[in-house]
Amino acid sequence: MIQNIPVYDICSLSDIRQDDLLVSRFAPYLDSHKKLFFPHKHSFYHLVLFTEGSGSHTIDFESFTVKPGQIYFMIPGQVHSWHFKGFTDGYIINFSEAFIQSFILQPGYLHNFSFFSGSLQDAVIDLPKESFEIVRSILENILIEVVKPAVAGSDMVRLLMLQLFIHINRLNANPDVSIKPTYNQTLLKNYQNLIEQHYADIKLPKDYAELLYITPNHLNAVCKDLVGLSAGELIRNRTLLEAKRMLVNPGLSISEIALKLNFSDNSYFTKFFKKAEGINPEEFRKQALKH
């Protein structure tokens, strides 16, 4: 059993660090990084297209079946592990936000893509056959640019990656919906961004509503209308996710986790966790670290 959950950066996964980017066929990458079968975090963005293989992979404690034609995306901080059966291959790209941002003037450009939102229902995609061939061709061209560097090679890689992102983003886009988000959609996104920044120290929807210059009732109505959850549930769900991420680190005690998440005491944290998960934090930890 691992003693501390590792957090990998691109440099730690490659002998050569080029512009905050790592591109590889998946089989040799997997063969070189056996420890990635255990739960771990990334400090970078990460995508994999499977072309062969079976088994499962887990992102933030939700398990997905591996299948050829599946692509998944991850953002920094998510907890991940693999459990493959037999030979598995495909393509992998690890990259920093700076790698793309240096090419795009629009701040936070990656956040425009739903598969980089952290929502798992958008992050794991089974590609239709035609799209699979398109995406595979793009990834093959990216690999060629990395293996055989040419003039402006990094910029060509960026262009190809943007082509891939835009193609996949269009798969689920509703042509009847305006490209420009509505006021309520923007409001929800701003609320989610605030939760991401403050879930540990701001616990009440009314305090977020004040930051957004709206009433708590308005905030709650927007959340229920767009995602089917109350404003309070979104805060609790994010707190619960971070608790799970911390619990797979055996180096942190339950009391330390409760303190980091600003619970008044250990028993209150345990009660919160058990109400949401049906088991206490220690039981969750044992299950998550069992291999």
Question: Can you give a write-up of this model?
Answer:
This protein is an alpha+beta fold and 291 residues long. It folds into two domains: 7-171, Jelly Rolls (Sandwich); 183-288, Homeodomain-like (Arc Repressor Mutant, subunit A, Orthogonal Bundle), CATH 1.10.10.60. The chain is 46% helix and 19% strand. Strands 1, 2, 3, 4, 5, 6, 7 and 8 form an eight-stranded mixed sheet that branches. The protein is globular and about 55 Å long. The termini are close together. The mean pLDDT is 89.
Number of strands: 8
Provide the low-confidence segments as ranges: none
So, CATH architecture of the largest domain? Sandwich
Structural class: alpha+beta
Distance between the termini: 8 Å
Q: Helix fraction?
A: 40-55%
Classified by CATH, the class of the largest domain is Mainly Beta
Radius of gyration: 20 Å
What about the largest sheet?
A: 8 strands, mixed
C-alpha geometry: globular
Number of helices: 12
- Order of secondary-structure elements: EEHEEEEEHHEHHHHHHHHH
Portion in beta strands: 15-25%
For the record, what is the CATH homologous superfamily label of the largest domain?
Answer: Regulatory protein AraC
The number of distinct structural domains comes to 2
Mean pLDDT: 89
The fold-level CATH name of the largest domain is Jelly Rolls
